[in-house]
Specification:
Elements lengths: L6 E5 L2 E5 L7 E4 L2 H21 L19
Antiparallel strand pairs: 1-2, 2-3
Length: 71
């Protein structure tokens, strides 16, 4: 199963998400859970459109890691 990194951000009125490896693949919702559901759908639609257009599907290359700050 392919997994893409998704960045979730709290906004002034809800949540937004984007996929760094899929340029232009974004979603926004009122709650974090809704936004995760919407970005999952957006990824599937984005990849489907790329396939229909004959574009190569980029492999996941973005990694996410939390880095603790020195005190």
């Amino acid at each position: 199963m392919t997994e893409y990194a998704v960045v979730l951000e709290r906004t002034g009125n809800g949540w937004s998400a984007y996929v760094p490896d899929l340029d232009g693949c974004i979603a926004a919702g009122d709650t974090e859970a809704e936004t995760i559901r919407l970005i999952r759908e957006a990824i599937a639609l984005h990849i489907e459109a790329m396939r229909q257009d004959g574009d190569p599907i980029p492999p996941p290359t973005t990694h996410v890691q939390y880095v603790p700050l020195a005190s």
